[in-house]
Structure formats: structure tokens, C-alpha cells
Amino acid sequence: MNVPPRGEPAATHATPSLQPAGRTEPALRVEGVWKSFGQARVLRGIDLELAEHDVVCLIGASGSGKSTLLRCINLLEPVDAGRIVLQGEEITAPGADVNRVRRRLGIVFQSFNLFPHMSVLSNVTLAPRKVLRLSRRDAEERATALLGRFGLADKRDDFPDRLSGGQQQRVAIVRALAMEPDLLLLDEITSALDPELVAEVLNVIRELARGGMTMLIATHEMGFARDIATRVCFLDSGVILEQGPPAEIFGHPREARTRQFLQRIVEAGRL
User: Fold this and answer.
1) In 36, 48, 193, 232, which residue has its Cα 20 to 30 A from 64's Cα atom?
2) Phi and psi of 10, rounded to 5°?
3) What is the CA angle 67-74-223, rounded to 5?
4) Which of 171, 219, 165, 227 is nearest to 196 (CA)?
5) Could you give the residue ranges of the DSSP H alpha helices within the chain?
6) How far apart are CA 249 and CA 226, in angstroms?
7) Is the domain of 186 the same as that of 174?
């Protein structure tokens, strides 16, 4: 049985199972996950479930553990304790095939991480060709359809430095989608954008939500989280302090720390 690291108390705000009735296995299950960097306990017993087609938004102050949680789910960071289960498979088990797991998980970061020496089309088709072994023709057909879907068809032959920040981030999202992931992880994808470019990226995420994509999103865009999420989780000091439907979290938060956080967001004009 997984236990917290020695000397640490058990998390006091474990979250209940939110598995829908009649479903035997959620799309993602995070059980008692702990993660430290040196002496800093960044995640302290995280429990979280996503059903198929859920859009779960992680909110909280910088340093609360949102990005670290996403990186642990994508296996970019090893967990210290606990386990992560993706569609019934424990991906944190010893001997798990990390590369195979990552084919099923798309992740998009704050920075776009596009290859500057490659065209948009080449950026999007690289992984499907190299990892999924698609033919050039099949990979390009898939990429062209996705670029067209998100208003980038005329940018397929451009290089990243010819694109706006919003366009680059949309290409990064398309690149993740080209792998046809089971779960999409989005880590503060609007944080590096000028304010006028934020809307075009958020509209892409709204389109994905309407299409049924399962997503776990770390975001500072509170209005967006309120509008798009099926569930909102408030993280504080490495613990999911409170979670529930957006109307409940933003309208009637139970925890004093959640109320304090949201009050500051309102005062800053961001909600």
C-alpha cells in the first residue's frame, strides 16, 4: 500500500470518488500522489478522478501544485508515493512503458515548444510519422484536417516565427491532437500570450470540449473555467482543498481559503 513520505501527515482534504454510476473505470484516476523537490512537498496526497468527456479545471495560486500534477500524470516527473491509473492501466507501476503511455496523453505547455526550423505542417506531422508510424500522406491528411478545423489551414507552410503567439499556441494544440490522445493536459496555455490573443486559444478549447475531448486544464482564466468546466478543483499547498461544479465553487465555496483566493481574483478584475 502506498503511504505518504516519512514524517508527513496524511492529507486532510482527500477528495471523494466522483465516478459516474454504471461506469467501472474512470478515464483517469489519481490516488494518493505525493511529490517533493528536495525539502519542498509540492503534492501532498492528491486524489482525483476524471470520467470520459470530463473537462476538469485546476485553479489555485502559483506554486499550489497544478503544473506538477500535470507533469506527474504525463510521467515527466516520477511520483514519490501513490499511483496514477489511465483507463484501467496503472501507468506509474514499475516497468510501465513510458513512451507507450505518452502516446495516449497529449500535453500542451505555456511555451509553445514548436521546432523553429520546421514548418507548421512538419511540426504537426513529426510525431505521428515517427511514433505512430503513419505514412507521410496519412499524417499530412490528418494534420491538414486539424489545421483547417482550427483556422490554420493557410499557415501550414509557414514557420513558427511568422505566426502570432496565439497562432503558435493553436499549432501546439493541433500537434497534440494529431496523436489522437485519450486525455489532453493543458498547462496554463494562455499565460504567455498577450491579452488580445487569449480568446482565440480559449475558443479552440471550447471547440474541443463540445467535441467530447477529455481534458485536465491548469488555468488562471477563472471566467473560462467557470464557463467550460464540468468540475473545478481548487489546489492549495499541494492538496485539492475543494472541488465541485463551477457554479458551486465560484458561487458558494465552502472553504475559507477558496473564498479568500476567489475574492482576490474578483478584486483583480479577473472574474
Assistant:
1) 193
2) -65, 145
3) 40
4) 165
5) 66-73, 98-103, 120-130, 136-149, 165-177, 195-210, 222-228, 246-251, 256-267
6) 9
7) no
**H or E stretch covering 185:** strand 183-187
Q: Which domain holds residue 241?
A: 51-77+95-104+182-271
8 A C-beta contact, residue 13 and residue 242: yes
Write down the pTM of the prediction. Answer: 0.88
Cell of 133: 508510424
* Domain assignment present for 42: no
Q: What is the pLDDT of residues 98-141, one digit of tens each?
A: 999 999 999 999 888 899 999 999 999 999 999 999 999 999 99
Higher pLDDT, 192 or 31: 31
**Which secondary-structure segment (H or E) carries 107?**
strand 105-108
How many domains does one find in the chain?
Answer: 2
164: burial class by Cβ within 10 Å (0-12, 13-18, 19+)? middle
Q: Binning pLDDT at 50, 70 and 90, where does residue 192 land?
A: confident
User: Which is it for the CA torsion 221, 226, 229, 232, positive or negative?
Assistant: positive
CB of 59 within 8 A of CB of 82? no
Q: How many other C-beta atoms can be found within 10 angstroms of the C-beta atom of residue 125?
A: 24
**245: domain CATH number?**
3.40.50.300
Q: What are phi and psi of 8, to 5 degrees?
A: -105, 140
